[in-house]
Amino acid sequence: MAMRAFFNEIKGVKLRDLPSHLKPKLSWEHIKKTVDQAVDRYIEKYIETSSPEPIFHVCYGGMVFSYLINLPHERRHLDHQQQLAAGGGHH
To answer: Which residues have a Cβ under 8 Å from the Cβ of 81 and sit 6 or more positions away?
Structure first.
C-alpha cells in the first residue's frame, strides 16, 4: 500500500527533480516521525484492543530471524554434502 502511494507520488515528478523531491523524505527527522506514526498505529490497532496478534508477530518474527541467522550454516552444510556426493569421498 505504501509503495503504491510512493510510486503514484513520484510518477509525475521529472527525473531531474527527483533527488530534491526525495531528499526531505530520507532525512532522519522524517524517518523518525514516520516510524513513530507506525508504532502509534500498531499500538492502537493491536495493543489497546487486547488482540493476541502481537504474540503471533513475535513468534513468526523469531522464527524468520532464526532461519535467516542459520541460513549461511545450512548452505555451507549442503555444499559440503554435495561435494562429498560428487567426489564420492568419505568424511
So the answer is: none
Which string of DSSP letters, residue by residue, matches 30-90?
HHHHHHHHHHHHHIIIIITTT-SHHHHHHHHHHHHHHHHHHHHHHHHHHHHHHHHHHHT--
Predicted confidence (pLDDT) per residue in 45-65, tens digit? 999 999 999 999 999 999 999
Which strand (E) or helix (H) includes residue 28? helix 28-42
Q: Which residue has the cell 504474540?
A: 55
- Rounded Cα distance between 54 and 42, Å, is 9
Q: Show the cell assigned to 86.
A: 560428487
pTM (2 decimals)? 0.62
